[in-house]
Design a protein that fits this description.
alpha/beta, Rossmann fold, 3 domains, five-stranded parallel β-sheet, 11 helices, globular
Length: 340
């Protein structure tokens, strides 16, 4: 008889922090089921959330070089050799790491004397206030920077509820789906002052043109919160410094050995290529960067481990292991601790 289970977890698709119920049959995720008691999304999920379990379908199962699959012993020996050879080592992390993994990564970077950073679409490190997502519907004015209604639809749902309650919705940015739902439109943050922000106004942003934009937002007089594109960017930021477009380019230019964890920098518009002596990619599934890596280390996904994510609004949530990882795959912490 097939074993059918439904287990609760946290969606890894963006920084909103929605809840999910994962349907598993004989230990294999097959779909999701609404979790109506979750305070953020109340049982509703966007397409990215509904498809999040599919990450296990295109996964890498064995360590490999450009030539062939290799054993874990050979992979660790090769990476150890390269770390000892190179003076300029960088670890490019991701907001997809758990808080616990980010803390371990910080220890790893200190141990092997590596620079560490992660890309956050020009959103800098800052003492961001904690926002109760349920309070969004009570603001009188909401300013959106970035295509939030399209990219973060469960948060967008709260914004549209506020609009139904009489809130004025203002969009700042290029033509997008969010613009067509807004009452007013501005092209850049230079126009922020004309929208007369105060304490009944909320600014939500999922990208900035440069790190100096945050000063305009902080000084506006409005409440504000980033909406990170990755599920635990706010949590990772407590341990690893965020990188802007220009900082990311410089970071890579100065590195001889680059160790990428759960990121795909070659997908970013700000980066055309990665020119380093040795490129290591630690990932669950194939991506553009893993296809050109000198060494690929396959790792577990969030369904296969325990940990915590801190969402964009400062709310930390636990997630628990639901399925077993393949025997040939290691957890991120297992891999990192080999070098600590």
């Amino acid at each position: 008889m097939e074993k059918f289970i439904v287990e609760h977890t946290i969606c890894p698709s963006c920084g909103v922090g929605c809840g999910l119920n994962i349907i598993c049959i004989d230990g294999v995720p097959k779909g999701i089921y609404p979790y109506k008691r979750h305070p953020i999304n109340e049982g509703k999920n966007c397409k990215n959330g509904r498809d999040s379990y599919k990450i296990v379908e295109n996964r890498i199962k064995h360590p490999k070089t450009k030539k062939s699959e290799i054993s874990w012993d050979d992979a660790f020996n090769l990476l150890s050799e390269k770390i000892n050879e190179k003076d300029k080592i960088g670890i490019l992390a991701s907001g997809r790491l758990s808080n616990e993994e980010a803390e371990t990564l910080k220890k790893l970077s200190e141990k092997i004397d590596a620079k560490a950073g992660f890309y956050t679409y020009n959103i800098p490190k800052q003492e961001y206030p904690s926002i109760n997502i349920k309070d969004i519907e009570n603001y009188k004015k909401i300013i959106l920077i970035g295509d939030i209604l399209n990219e973060n639809p469960l948060l967008g749902r709260r914004v549209l509820h506020a609009q139904d309650n009489g809130a004025e919705i203002i969009y700042i940015g290029e033509k997008s789906r969010t613009m067509f739902n807004a009452d007013k439109h501005g092209k850049s943050l230079e126009e922020l002052e004309k929208f007369e922000c105060n304490d009944s106004c909320l600014i939500l942003f999922n990208k900035l043109e440069n790190e100096n934009d945050i000063k305009k937002i902080v000084n506006s007089g409005a409440d504000f919160s980033p909406v990170f594109k990755e599920c635990n960017a706010r949590g990772v930021m407590e341990f690893i410094d965020p990188l802007t477009d220009e900082q990311l380019k410089k970071f890579i230019e100065e590195i001889e050995l680059l160790w990428v964890m759960h990121a795909d920098p070659l997908e970013l518009e700000c980066l055309e290529s990665i020119d380093v002596d040795f490129l290591v990619v630690q990932t669950v599934e194939k991506n553009k960067t893993s296809e050109v890596a000198d060494l690929v280390l396959p790792t577990s996904c969030w369904l296969e481990k325990n940990g915590t994510f801190t969402n964009s609004f400062g709310y930390t949530q636990k997630f628990s292991k639901i399925i077993e990882k393949p025997e040939t795959v290691l957890d991120d912490e297992e891999i990192m601790k080999k070098f600590i």
